[in-house]
């Protein structure tokens, strides 16, 4: 890979990874939608692909309208839409993640009263009881199991931060 292409890929990867309101899975879902439009696999949606996609969705796509749409989205003026531009459009109206690491750390510290850097089952149960939450031991353990990325039975700060900054928790 040439240096210029490598640097360009790095910049694009960086802009994609700097979408704090999206999980990796959500970015991949948007990439899959992009790939449906990018029928030739070029990494760009050109006017013909956009027109075909719009027509398949039932829109009466006229060439002039398609070119205007691409001009409005194409930041680089290349006559096509690249993935980072598509991602920007798809995420433009999503709420921004306003939780800073420091804010999440303060919340984590409320659970981690012994400053060991982990939330154990017992710590989670204590906080749930203090908050008046009527949760079974099985429900609390399930919360630990879902958040515990290294499967050591405890939630570390990175696990906690990941959960706290996700839009959804499945």
Describe the protein in words:
By secondary structure, this protein is mainly alpha-helical. It is built from nine helices and four strands. The protein has helices at residues 3-17, 24-37, 47-56, 63-73, 83-91, 101-111, 121-130, 137-147, 157-165, and strands at 44-45, 81-82, 118-119, 155-156. Strands 1-2 form a two-stranded antiparallel ribbon. Helix 3 crosses helix 4 (63-73) and helix 6 packs across helix 9. The chain is elongated and about 65 Å long. The two termini are 38 Å apart. Mean pLDDT is 79; it is low at 1-18.
In whole angstroms, the N-to-C terminal distance is 38 Å
Put simply, the count of helices is 9
Strand runs, count = 4
- Biggest sheet strand order reads 1-2
Please provide the ordered H/E string of secondary-structure elements.
HHEHHEHHEHHEH
Cα-atom radius of gyration: 22 Å
Largest sheet: 2 strands, antiparallel
Notable traits:
59% helix, 170 residues, two-stranded antiparallel ribbon, mainly alpha, 9 helices
Topology:
Elements: H1 3-17, H2 24-37, E1 44-45, H3 47-56, H4 63-73, E2 81-82, H5 83-91, H6 101-111, E3 118-119, H7 121-130, H8 137-147, E4 155-156, H9 157-165
Antiparallel strand pairs: 1-2, 3-4
Short summary:
The chain is mainly alpha-helical and 170 residues long. 59% of the residues lie in helices and 5% in strands. The protein has a two-stranded antiparallel sheet. A two-stranded antiparallel sheet has the order 3-4.
